[in-house]
């Protein structure tokens, strides 16, 4: 018998979504922690404030990764980037405004 090659549609592929989310989270955590450490070395003298800047950077990285992961799992795009169709429909509702993309 011939084997059937069934592929999961991208919107239902949880393995790919988890891989993307973990990769994004790890990168943002590391990069923002390094940025916090560098900023702490430049701006602060005491070790406590330097560690606080590292923790703040890590928190910013985790928070931004959490936000983008929620967009990945919901299947929607972030609010600050309007889709092409919403821009065209908004332009067409205003009359004779033409939008080129």
From TrEMBL:
| Transmembrane helix in keyword set | yes
Cross-referenced Pfam families: DUF543
Q: Where in the cell is it found?
A: Mitochondrion inner membrane
Keyword entries, A-Z = Membrane, Mitochondrion, Mitochondrion inner membrane, Transmembrane, Transmembrane helix
Q: Which GO terms describe its cellular component?
A: MICOS complex
Top-rank taxon: Eukaryota
User: What topology does the record note for this protein and the membrane?
Assistant: Single-pass membrane protein
InterPro entries given in the database record: Mic10
Function recorded in the entry? Component of the MICOS complex, a large protein complex of the mitochondrial inner membrane that plays crucial roles in the maintenance of crista junctions, inner membrane architecture, and formation of contact sites to the outer membrane.
**Family designation:** Belongs to the MICOS complex subunit Mic10 family.
What name is this protein filed under?
Answer: MICOS complex subunit Mic10
* Biological source species: Colocasia esculenta
